[in-house]
Sequence to fold (220 residues):
Amino acid sequence: MDERARPETAQTLDRGLTVLQLVSASPSGLTISALAEALGVSRAVVYRLVATLQARDFVTRGVDARVRLGLGVTRLQLAVRPVLAAAAGPVLRALADRIGATAHLSIAEGEQALALVVVEPTWTDLHVSYRVGSRHPLTRGAAGRAILEARQGAPGPVLTSGELQQGAHGLAAPVPGVPGLEASVGVVATSPLDAPGVGEAVMAAAAEVAANLTSARRPG
Fold:
């Protein structure tokens, strides 16, 4: 391979991935001009990037000419979810039984939090039911708020009460240090979760999920 071609190839790939990141953060879509401005390149470069991504069904262009995510991205997300579930499942089981509360892993999809893995405690008589596939705005509930706090560089736990369900209390912390993943680990209970050690346990669980994912990504 021509060594001189590598930087250009890497730059093109980086720009294409940046287009996907920008579009994923804008549910209403972005124009070619907006993408060109964000990337600092010409409209012609963006047209080529979008055309390539569109051919792979990673983005679409509607009648309003705005670029949005395509079904190809959804297929990739579905393929990755079993990996996330495998990394988080045992950790959430231990957390749920330790705290006596329903534990969950949520990921960001656009401006919503999606509950991907949910584990209920085995020894409590009463606990909150939290359905896999539940969605809510990132601005409501501990799971979403923890992801938003991580975007601002604040990795600590977030405590909420009654934001998603009356009488339910939530505590969540972001999954740290996994490139490309915006996720949180949390617990939800019928009683307040401000007891000593709960926040630390949730943060430790989030870090363990991150470590499991990092190990899974290493070539074996």
